[in-house]
Amino acid sequence: MENTAVLEGASVKEKSAPLTIFGIKSCYFFVAMMVFAFLGFWVENIARMITKNVFDSRHQLLPFLFAYGLALLAIYIVLGTPDEMRFFNIRIFRKKGIKSRVFSHLSYFLVICAFIMLGEIGVGMIYEKVAGVILWDYTSIPTHITRYTSLITTALFGGGVYAIMAFAFRPMIKLISKMGTTAATVLDCTLGVAIIIDFLIMILYTFITGSAPEYWSVAW
To answer: What is the pTM of this model?
Structure first.
């Protein structure tokens, strides 16, 4: 009877264990995705302000680009962080030391760049072929590869993502975890859901009408 009770207790604990994403509580990781989505909005608009003198909605109502949050999720699930680079569950650089650390960080940066380049080409071509919409065009940028990516922008975006994952990701998760699971869950279920709905509206509107929604824009 006692063994049965112990097993039942262990089963209850297992069932109540929080969902994690490679060691990070999902409720905190979802908040981190929102932070990435917010940063993505500003990164794109800062680039447009510098190159085109335009500041706009980026086709969404809220200042969050959920695609960047999804990119964070994909990057962390597949690669982890530069200090602990892995391929899903398989640790790539097991040895510790300066040489291994350098190779880990360099490999991470290069894989991130490849991920960004292929991702931009893939997403851009899907919108163009299916909806007939060209959401962005890099043909005016030297070293462009198709209209949707270039070596320069790939290196800049890749460097930014690498820097965040190498130096800011863990501190950010630690800071987010201080809000507690209840607050994080409430934020996920309110702002998080609103961001996803906004993202889905943009996708549906684009594929149905053949043009991306433009809510507001400031040009000078």
So the answer is: 0.89
